[in-house]
Design the sequence.
C-alpha cells in the first residue's frame, strides 16, 4: 500500500504528498471510532480512489505531536519573535519554550526585524542570555536578508514548524528564505498592537535541499492544560540541570530549603526574568480549572 505525508488538512480533506504526486484524500470512518484524528505531518498509508483522489487507511506512529498548532512529527521549532513591532516579549518566548520542551522538540530562537530595533546592546544581551541556556539564537532582518542563510542551514533534514505571535514576520521570513513561496503577508494593526492572521491553516512545504517547513497560524497565548505543576521546572533547561541536587524530591523551587535552583538564582546563574516567568506559569497551572 502506498505511503505519503499529509501536507495540508482542509474542509475534511487530507492532502497527501507521495514523491511528486499529491492526493486529495478522505479518512476512513474507523479513525473516528478509534478517536484518531489525522494531522498535518502524519506519515500515512492510503489507497487510490481515482486519478488524484484517495482514502487514508492508516496513520503511522508519531514521533511528536503539537496541539497549538496541530501538527505531527515535528522535530524542530523555529520560534519567531520580533525585536520591534510588536515589541519583544520574553514571557511569551519562555512560554513557547516550555511547550516545545514538553513536546520533546528542539527549539531555535529567531529574532526578526533587527533593522527596526536601534538598541544593539539589548539585542546582544537577549542573544547571549538564551544561548547561555542552550538555545541557538539567530538575529534576522527580512529586508536586509541578514541571518537568512543561518536559518536555512538549520532547516536541512528536519520537519520544522515556524511559530510565534502574530505579526512577528513568519511569512515574510519564509518568503525571504524561499522566494518562490510568495506567502501572504499583512501589516501590523497599530490599534490592536498585533498582526493580522495571514496564515489560516497549517501547511507543510517540502524543501528542495531536504526537509519540510510549516507556516502556521499566528497566535498570542498558550495554556498549560497538558502540563502538571510537578513537571514544569523540567521544561526549563537551566532548572532541569540543577533540580536533581535539590534537598527534597519534587521541589517546586519556591520556598523549600536546600533548593539548588534557588541557590543558582542567588548566584546569578539563572536569569531572574526566566525564574519570574516560571513562578507565574506555576501559579497559572495551580489556578487552572480541572477538565471533566
Sequence:
Amino acid at each position: 500500500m502506498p505511503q505519503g505525508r499529509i501536507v495540508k488538512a482542509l474542509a475534511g480533506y487530507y492532502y497527501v504528498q507521495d514523491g511528486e504526486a499529491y492526493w486529495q484524500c478522505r479518512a476512513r470512518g474507523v479513525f473516528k471510532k478509534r478517536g484518531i484524528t489525522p494531522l498535518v505531518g502524519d506519515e500515512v498509508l492510503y489507497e487510490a480512489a481515482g486519478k488524484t483522489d484517495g482514502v487514508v487507511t492508516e496513520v503511522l506512529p508519531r514521533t511528536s505531536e503539537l496541539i497549538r498548532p496541530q501538527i505531527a512529527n515535528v522535530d524542530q521549532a523555529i520560534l519567531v519573535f520580533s525585536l520591534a513591532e510588536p515589541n519583544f516579549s520574553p514571557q511569551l518566548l519562555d512560554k513557547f519554550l516550555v511547550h516545545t520542551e514538553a513536546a520533546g522538540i528542539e527549539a531555535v530562537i529567531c529574532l526578526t526585524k533587527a533593522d527596526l530595533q536601534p538598541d544593539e546592546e539589548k539585542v546582544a544581551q537577549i542573544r547571549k542570555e538564551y544561548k547561555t541556556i542552550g538555545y541557538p539564537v539567530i538575529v534576522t532582518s527580512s529586508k536586509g536578508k541578514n541571518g537568512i542563510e543561518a536559518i536555512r542551514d538549520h532547516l536541512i533534514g528536519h520537519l520544522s514548524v515556524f511559530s510565534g505571535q502574530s505579526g512577528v514576520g513568519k511569512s515574510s521570513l519564509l518568503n525571504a528564505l524561499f522566494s518562490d513561496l510568495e506567502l501572504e503577508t499583512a501589516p501590523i494593526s497599530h490599534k490592536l498592537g498585533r498582526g493580522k492572521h495571514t496564515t489560516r491553516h497549517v501547511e507543510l512545504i517540502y524543501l528542495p535541499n531536504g526537509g519540510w517547513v510549516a507556516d502556521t497560524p499566528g497566535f498570542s497565548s498558550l495554556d498549560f492544560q497538558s502540563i502538571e505543576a510537578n513537571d514544569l521546572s523540567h521544561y526549563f533547561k537551566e532548572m532541569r540541570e540543577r533540580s536533581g541536587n535539590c534537598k527534597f524530591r519534587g521541589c517546586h523551587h519556591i520556598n523549600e530549603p536546600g533548593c539548588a535552583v534557588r541557590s543558582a538564582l542567588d548566584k546569578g546563574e539563572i536569569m531572574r526574568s526566566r525564574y519570574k516567568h516560571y513562578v507565574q506559569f506555576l501559579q497559572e497551572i495551580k489556578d487552572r480549572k480541572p477538565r471533566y
